Amino acid sequence: MTHTQNYLSKVNQNEFFNMSKFVVTENFKHHTDEELPNSYNSDITSVYNEEMDYSRNSHFYAVKNEIGEIIGTIRALKWDYINPLPIQKMFGINPLLCLSGNSVNEIWHIGRFAIKKGARDISLLKKLMVSAIAPICKHEDNIAFAECDAKLLRIMTLMGIKTKIVGKSIDYLGSETIPVSIAYNGLINFYNENKYLMQPAITVQTQNTTLLPNSVVFNA
Predict the structure, then answer these.
(1) CB-based contacts of 14: which residues, under 8 Å, 6+ apart?
(2) Among 56, 54, 88, 69, which residue's Cα sits nearest to residue 19?
């Protein structure tokens, strides 16, 4: 039995560059056999600049181990209806056209999800996910959008998160990436069952621990 202390914390702007580097690095590790492309440094800079632009309306979280190493990240962004969301940039999808006439309170985007390769405990995914969806679950008319790979989408479904595919998938960084919307009703049960994970805690991993596949990422 292995005991590991994992600490969940909100990321400050002075940590954004390290978070951006982690997200880009883990994307390539998971999807391209750890081969870093020539665009690696420019990709980090692009992610960093975008997160700085979003920082006023975003919540960026990281889980670190007992020696301060990053093992997971995620970001929730409240849309200001001015700056385009990643789903608009990548897929050309207007979130407002995906609402099917339903009333909406706030529109959010979940992104920058990455887990260190080799850290496969599914409780880590749950801890990051419940942190990102907490503000979305404050109002029943809130909705979120995300772009995630097919493996992660299957895992989210198994965990009880209900999503709706809103566009055709694309190949991105070696994986099938799918645009989805996630309404309050598709999140609230998962949130209520796992919100205790938002508190810093000691996680215990055993041989019976449910493991993630080797590659699940909300693409950068």
Answers:
(1) none
(2) 69
| Strand 201-205 to 170-172 pairing | unpaired
- Concatenating the DSSP letter of every residue in the chain gives -EEEEEEEEEPPGGGHHHHHHHHHHHHHHHHSTTPPPTTHHHHHHHHHHHHHHHGGGEEEEEEE-TTS-EEEEEEEEE--SSSPPHHHHHH---GGGGSTT---S-EEEEEEEEE-TT--BHHHHHHHHHHHHTTGGGSTT-EEEEEEEHHHHHHHHHTT---EE-S--EEETTEEEEEEEEEGGGTHHHHHHHGGGGS-EEEEE-TT--B--S---B--
Range 2-200: architecture per CATH: 3-Layer(aba) Sandwich (3.40)
Dmax (CA) of the chain: 51
C-beta atoms surrounding 94 within 10 Å? 12
Q: For residue range 53-86, what is the model confidence (pLDDT) as tens digits?
A: 999 999 999 999 888 899 999 999 999 999 999 9
End-to-end CA distance of the chain: 34
**Ranges of each domain in the chain:** 2-200
Helix axes 150-158, 122-133, angle to 10 degrees: 80
In degrees, rounded to 5, the angle at the alpha carbon of residue 87 between the alpha carbons of residues 70 and 93 is 170
The pTM assigned to this predicted structure is 0.84
For 9-27, what is each residue's pLDDT tens digit? 898 899 999 999 999 888 8
